[in-house]
Amino acid sequence: MRSIMFRAHRAVRTSVAAVALAAALFTATACSEAQKAIDCIQLGTQLANDVSNLQSVINDPDAAAESLENITKTLNKAAGDVDSQDVKDAITEMTAQVTQLSQQIANKETPSIDAVSVLKTSAKTIGDACTS
Fold it and tell me: Where residue 15 falls among pLDDT bands split at 50, 70, 90?
């Protein structure tokens, strides 16, 4: 009789432990996904701020080059941190636009206002892709 009760208690303890472990894993996964979403949204905000900064210094080639370098660093870091293919595609597109604008500034060409507008749109696209 005692052996049967011991087995029953052991089965209950094992079941409770399994449920607790599953709940902990689910919570950790849910928290991890939520943190990724928050980080992605913060990326969109950071890029929007960086592009606004670029717009304010676009007539100063040295400051514009530095601003574009900061945007490039942010994009490169983010490219390795995101899982969403939509966000990765938007980052790739924005990186190409930043590279083109950087080349214009390096060649002493006056960047068009449209180029900065395109970067604003790209930053917004990244933010939107994070929430979809």
Answer: low
Question: pLDDT per residue over 97-111, tens digit each?
Answer: 999 999 999 999 888
Rounded to whole angstroms, the Cα distance separating 90 from 84 reads 10
Is residue 29 scored above 50 in pLDDT? Answer: no
Domains and CATH numbers, the chain: 36-131 (1.20.120)
Instruction: Give the closest residue to 61 by CA, choosing from 99, 118, 114, 101.
Output: 101
Please write down the long-range contacts of 106-114, taking CB distance under 8 Å and 24 or more positions apart: 106/65, 108/61, 111/58, 111/64
